Amino acid sequence: MARNVSVSSGPLKYAQAVSVGSHVFQADEPVDVGGGDTGPDPHELLMASLGACASITAQMYAKRKQWNLQSVHIDVAYEQVLAADNAASGVTIGMVDQFEMQISLAGDLSEEQRNRLFEIANRCPIHRMLTSGVKIQSRLSAEAAQAEKSS
To answer: What's the rounded Cα separation, in Å, for the pair 134 and 60?
Structure first.
């Protein structure tokens, strides 16, 4: 099960302190949109999650199969494209979000093994989550509501 993530704003305009277990890092917006570029922006963090998950999933599978996978390199890009260019989205007008992954597998692997690892990488938990129609439930905490009442 994934650990909870905590995000807090700080003194810098859009910089956010992100805590995941014992790991702490910053997220921010690029300078061209008013941020300080002190960390990856939210889209970049999501792309990193997708790439890391696909890579780890391929590595775990190769290890379990005892295949000679030496390394995985994944480049992830994001853009919004016209819905007409992406018929699989089910949207007929407007824009849809699209990730593009370039997956490189290094090691002494047969073509069949390479194809299977590619298939497995594209079934990682984050990939499945992003393509499943995610639901997000948000609520205002009592602490935040109390702070608003005292203002």
So the answer is: 25
Residues 90, 111 share a domain: yes
Of 76, 70, 67, 78, the residue nearest 124 (C-alpha): 76
Domain that holds residue 16: 1-39
Half-sphere exposure of residue 121: CA atoms within 13 angstroms, side-chain side: 28
pTM: 0.84
CB crowding 134-148: b at 16 or more within 10 Å, else e: eeeeeeeeeeeeeee
In this structure, the answer to whether residues 59 and 102 fall within a common structural domain is yes
User: Is 118 found in the same domain as 72?
Assistant: yes
Give per-residue pLDDT as tens, 3-55: 899 999 988 899 999 999 999 999 999 999 999 999 999 999 999 999 999 99
Q: How do beta strands 68-82 and 23-27 pair?
A: unpaired
pLDDT in tens, 90-106: 656 788 889 999 999 99
Smallest Cα–Cα separation from 61: which of 124, 150, 139?
Answer: 124
Could you tell me the end-to-end alpha-carbon distance of the chain, in angstroms, rounded to an integer? 38
Beta-strand relationship, 5-9 and 16-20: antiparallel
